[in-house]
Amino acid sequence: MTNTINVRRADTTTVVRVAGAVIGETRDALILSEGDLAEVMYFPVTDVAMAFLDASETVTTCPAKGAASHYTIQTKSGALEDAAWSYENPTEAAMRIKGHIAFDTSRVTVENV
């Protein structure tokens, strides 16, 4: 695997749904590719209902992107711990995702509409 980061703009309107509720919608999503890893969609923070997200104490580190701050998503049926993350001070290679947030697609739905 290579640590090459590629970021491109998505060409569609993209939404993120949690338990059926839309918590984010944007025409300005970014798609990040990193080596052989699955692509990840990043939403501008300004297009996400951040009132549903609480910062967690979890911080993970990626050599290619830097330190990621994680968020717990609050839903009517409970909390989704660390189901979202952002790179507040990304590396130079990942600078385009600064001010954006990604979601764990195994627990929320991210789709183009």
Structure description:
This protein is mainly beta and 113 residues long. It has strands at 5-9, 14-18, 21-26, 30-34, 40-44, 53-62, 66-75, 78-86, 100-103, 109-112. The strands form 2 sheets. A 7-stranded antiparallel sheet has the order 1-4-5-9-8-7-6, with no helix packed on it. The protein has a 3-stranded antiparallel sheet with strand order 3-2-10, with no helix packed on it. The radius of gyration is 13 Å and the shape is globular. The model has no long low-confidence stretch (mean pLDDT 95). Residues 15-105 form the DUF427 domain. This is DUF427 domain-containing protein.
List the helices and strands and how they pair.
Layout lengths: L4 E5 L4 E5 L2 E6 L3 E5 L5 E5 L8 E10 L3 E10 L2 E9 L13 E4 L5 E4 L1
Short descriptors:
globular; 113 residues; Metal Binding Protein, Guanine Nucleotide Exchange Factor, Chain A; mainly beta; 10 strands; three-stranded antiparallel β-sheet; seven-stranded antiparallel β-sheet
